[in-house]
Amino acid sequence: xxxxxxxxxxxxxxxxxxxVSTTAEDLDATSHxxxxxxxxxxxxxxxxxxxxxxxxxxxxxxxxxxxxxATREEVPVTVRALGSSVTGQPLPVRGGIVLDLSGxxxxxxxxxxxxxxxxxxxxxxxxxxxxxxxxxxxxxHSPQSLYRSxxxxxxxxLATGQFSSLYGGIEDLVVGYTVVLATGESVxxxxxxxxxxxxxxxxxxxxxxGTLGVITSVTLKVFPLPETQLVQTVxxxxxxxxxxxxxxxxxxxxxxxxxxxxxxxxxRHAMADPSFASPVMFLGSRGVDAMARTELDTLLALAExxxxxxxxxxxxxxxxxxxxxxSTVENLLATPGGYAETIEVAHRWSRLEGLHxxxxxxxxxxxxxxxxxxxxxxxxxxxxxLILLGRAEDDVAAIARLESLWSTAMEVCLxxxxxxxxxxxxxxxxxxxxxxxxxxxxxxxxxLKDALDPAGVLNPGKLGL
Length: 465
Known about the structure:
The protein is of the alpha+beta class and about 475 residues long. It has helices at about 5-15, 25-30, 35-45, 65-75, 125-135, 150-155, 165, 170-175, 240-250, 265-270, 290-305, 315-320, 325-335, 350-365, 395-415, 425-430, 435-440, 440-450, and strands at about 20, 55, 75-80, 95-100, 110, 115-120, 135-140, 175-180, 185-190, 215-220, 225, 230-235, 260, 280-285, 310, 340-350, 370-375, 380-390. The strands form four sheets. Strands 15-12-14-13-17-18-16 form a seven-stranded antiparallel sheet, with helices on both faces. Strands 5-6-10-8-9 form a five-stranded antiparallel sheet. It is globular, with a radius of gyration of 22 Å. The protein starts with a helix and ends in a 13-residue tail after the last helix.
């Protein structure tokens, strides 16, 4: 029979009594992340997803012990590090154990010949980027949560960064990693630099959100800092014109590090100018000086072809200077009755404009402002990022409004055949829609889960599992 008490007794023996906590303070603190809905739950004194125990590990070597004990006793384990998820990924839905990895000492080693860095999964992303830049290098991975997240979290959530149009998402940047399975076995997955010995098994755990294993160390690509970086701001006459410009840029094989296109509603925020009245695009090129200048000149010539007006670098540079700022969302969430949400999806070029229009129309009755921008450009399409801001009469009403925003947005995206997430992952927010989104492919995920986690203890209730 499953036994939480037996599992905790064994872990106290193995890890020491200080590693296990069942205090209300610790369990409440680990029952929410930075998902706006969870933030409002916390403000309202609600903790609907609460563990039975918190287990803190201080060394990678302790993780196999925790997972082996949990599997033996059939106790759920939900992994947590810095808790920066915005979709409820580290929230326990079946009680059990929250496994806190944030106390594992962060270490890294740079190989300047092979241009890689190997770090513990607990390594703080911003600290690593700062250290690399001191050596003239960069990860090329720059999510808005860079200074709030860990490298292990990037892999577990299939993250991408604001400069992905040049460097790619985390799936393009990862060289290899180690993962501990539910049984306590450790597995190393790598390619040097590419391998064709069967399937690319590195892909199995990327985006698995702790449902298939626990990532413990990561090797990522690094890049020399660019010789030149140039940015420009372009006003465009319509959403259609901006999407056509982005699509043409991708079709021509240009690789700007910065491509962000805001509809007219969000452009006012992006430009910090309430009177700004048209969609706007931020563009940037970096690299060898001559190539960066040529690329940006080409982009601006394309922009003029699609009716764009070059405004100068200030708008784009100001965004670069504040791109880690979460204050608009955080301040509104901190206000009684205030609510804010970010929902990022993706679709093909042929269907993006219609998706944008339908989402704006469907969500307008549920928020005071429905803002949207397009970024992360691919040859076939782009992401669409929504920011929803509003005020309700109290936090309980705000919670209901956030729930309605999610269900409405997901249903619109399903009708359009869009991807339900581009880079925030599934978590609790999207788990109810996972099977409809993945369709028959969800069978593969279920089979993997059965094989790698036969007791079903790892982060249950996520990804439709």
